[in-house]
Amino acid sequence: MKTSLIDTLAREFEISPSRMRSIQRAVTAEIDAGLAGRKSSLAMLPSFCDAASGREKGFYLALDLGGTNFRVMLVKLSGAGTVPTVVAEAKYRLTPGQITGPGDALFDAIAAYVRKFLKDHAFTRPYALGYTFSFPVKLLGIDEGILIKWTKDFSASGVVGRKIVTLQRQALKRKGVGNVDIVALANDTVGTLQARAATDPYCGLGVILGTGFNIAVRVASKRITKGVGGYAGTGMIINMEAGGFSKSLPSTRHDRRLDRESGNSGQQLAEKMISGKYLPQLARLLILDLIKKDHLFAGQVPAVFADTARFAGEHMAILQAGSSEAAQALARELFGRNLTPSERRLLARVCQLVSRRSARIAAALIAGSLKRVERRSKQRVTVAVDGSLFAKYPGYSRLLATAIQELDGPASKGVRLQLTQDGSGIGAAVIAAVVASE
Ligand code: BGC
Fold this sequence. Notes:
Elements: H1 2-13, H2 17-35, E1 45-46, E2 57-65, E3 69-78, E4 85-93, H3 96-100, H4 103-120, E5 127-133, E6 137-141, E7 144-147, H5 164-174, E8 180-186, H6 188-197, E9 203-209, E10 213-220, E11 235-239, H7 253-261, H8 269-274, H9 279-292, H10 313-321, H11 324-335, H12 341-370, E12 381-386, H13 388-392, H14 396-408, E13 415-419, H15 423-436
Helix pairs in contact: 1-12, 2-12, 4-5, 6-15, 7-9, 9-12, 10-12, 12-14
The protein binds beta-D-glucopyranose.
């Protein structure tokens, strides 16, 4: 009986090679539709910049907003394909009130932190600044864009539909910051691609596999037929907003419940199957199912599973792959007692099913996107990846690489997945430098 329910869940969560191929094909078709301005679940948002050449030089400020941690950095670029250096960096935590309250309060808080950062380090010269804003933004040019919608946990009012850079500039002015000029606005996937491109000319994709999920792709400008004003480069990086992808996805009753109960039902469907914000929520639903059918915890729901937000990715990692001592220590913390061997096995299996499915769906999206990369070499292409799932979740990066190989066979030989940490911060500085060098 116990084996059969978990076997059913395992069947529901397995992504077969043919399912991966059908997702891969759908991604490529949706990319083409999005670039042509036809209806597509991929927003395919132009970034108005091409990949860095590696020759960029100078000191640039970077702002990185995408989660509750907000960063300010000063980055030095020395050209000649050398690795950018972080001269100074500060991380600040935004409060729930700031990310869900009035928009002006959010931008004021960011501006106040920028002022503090400049003061703490006595940075008084004029600086060009690159702003990584990791939400769906329709850029109007390289240095201005309109927020399409909030994702993740953000909901600050009066920002959707407004010009982000204008709002931030007004806040900087209100806070008396006079030596900073925002010259570029970018998504974190674009920043990640750019941070890698500064040292690697073969970089064609930037991927975030963290709290959120998304991909940026470098395409030939001639493929973008939906119109990008006077942009003259031969290639352009596109923020796909891949978390919004919705075709051919193997939605289970648990996915449908998660979506119904989320604050943005019907949206970000791929992200809800892939990203670190949602995997613990999915695992929780599977666990609740097992409890209801009396396979776990003697039919009693532990308090940690009673609300949607307490069970976390770090817990999943320990339950799936931690030592017995670590898993039992966590169990005592979460459930007030040790787990029986069968409970341990079941919990580990649930976490494994959910994370493995995430990696296989992400692989199909990456493989579909690779088909449209404007490559600088037939033999090799680099995929820059950042985010806690990829960097830290047990076995995740290996599952991802294996699934890409499974899809693309020998052609995947030249595909290199490169962890590009801090891509969103350093990348913003790189983009500011690209703009300055034009
Ligand atoms: C946002 C993307 C972002 C991704 C990773 C998603 O929720 O819509 O713009 O790139 O998270 O941070």
